[in-house]
Recover the amino acids of this structure.
């Protein structure tokens, strides 16, 4: 898989008349090399890929990650820098006869670009900023990747169901979030794919609520947005339900959100314009009189990262392609009352889409 991806990158470099490219974005690095070490922030990288237009690619890292790099980055020359990345590049780039060097402009600090410019200027190498070179490859998933994501989705559902059964008045948002994340790891996940959201009652009016020590009461809305990482691939799911007998207003709003989700799912197919999919689902909520209470996009892409292209938003004019994976997550958020969001994941197919979720909690009122 990595060899095929490297060949595509090298072909792209040749078409752009570039001699090499530096890959610094962590998910792109993982996608091209299989190297899974995490960065501790954009200022502390666990490694950089240097891919020439021909020949063997390089993984440049420090001594902390040398063994892991050798084990995981099959087909790469692993080079450990002792005096820093830029000192190594100053020696390596001329040796590889690089004259035009591409870099990921969306994931390279301005200060790092300045340092690189000083080095490359002295050795007469032209820097060429690139945007979404690897992301354009990542957006279309292979069937192998789709199966891995499907496994991640199904494990996420199993974790949710294990904790859903024990949710009861008296528990706190933090307590449930912690139980979900512990269960993820116990059941085989590498880690959560993002910080788990658990929100009760009025807290659910915040789309990205942070769990607190709020205590759950009977008759309250519970919104859970959770995802996990399995074999490198992410899942993302939101369920909203009510403790005790569902109240009339909750049932009414949930049915509107569910209808919007179903209309959005129906609109997804290869060739569909992203903003038109968003518009179809949004119209349901607008027509019901809750348009002002649905502020975010309908969905986003999921893969190695939990948020990636394509975005199903009102400003995205790009078309969906078969093999893309997206979330469909309409919501209605009413201050002081609460919020309802329902989120499933689906694969874009030629004549429609394949919904990956099986869990129906909160979808069947």
């Amino acid at each position: 898989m990595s060899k095929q991806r490297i060949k595509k990158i090298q072909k792209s470099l040749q078409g752009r008349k570039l001699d090499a490219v530096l890959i610094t974005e962590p998910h792109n690095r993982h996608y091209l090399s299989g190297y899974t070490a995490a960065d501790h922030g954009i200022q502390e990288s666990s490694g950089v890929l240097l891919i020439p237009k021909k020949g063997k690619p390089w993984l440049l890292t420090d001594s902390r990650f040398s063994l892991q790099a050798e084990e995981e980055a099959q087909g790469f020359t692993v080079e450990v820098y002792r005096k820093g990345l830029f000192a190594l590049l100053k020696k390596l780039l001329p040796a590889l006869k690089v004259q035009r060097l591409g870099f990921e402009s969306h994931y390279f600090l301005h200060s790092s670009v300045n340092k690189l410019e000083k080095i490359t200027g002295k050795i007469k190498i032209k820097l060429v900023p690139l945007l979404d070179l690897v992301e354009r490859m990542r957006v279309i998933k292979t069937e192998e990747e789709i199966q891995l994501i499907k496994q991640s989705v199904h494990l996420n559902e199993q974790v949710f169901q294990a904790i859903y059964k024990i949710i009861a008045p008296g528990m706190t948002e933090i307590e449930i979030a912690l139980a979900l994340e512990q269960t993820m790891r116990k059941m085989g996940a590498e880690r959560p794919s993002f910080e788990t959201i658990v929100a009760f009652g009025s807290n659910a009016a915040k789309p990205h609520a942070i769990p607190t020590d709020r205590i759950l009461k009977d008759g309250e809305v519970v919104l859970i947005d959770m995802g996990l990482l399995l074999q490198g691939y992410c899942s993302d799911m939101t369920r909203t339900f009510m403790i005790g007998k569902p109240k009339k207003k909750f049932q009414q709003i949930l049915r509107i959100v569910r209808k919007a989700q179903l209309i959005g799912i129906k609109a997804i197919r290869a060739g569909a314009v992203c903003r038109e999919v968003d518009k179809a689902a949004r119209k349901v909520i607008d027509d019901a009189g809750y348009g002002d209470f649905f502020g975010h996009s309908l969905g986003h892409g999921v893969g190695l990262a939990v948020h990636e292209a394509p975005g199903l938003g009102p400003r995205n004019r790009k078309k969906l392609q078969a093999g893309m994976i997206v979330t469909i997550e309409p919501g209605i958020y009413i201050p002081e009352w609460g919020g309802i969001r329902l989120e499933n994941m689906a694969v874009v197919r030629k004549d429609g889409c394949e919904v990956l979720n099986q869990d129906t909690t909160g979808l069947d009122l």
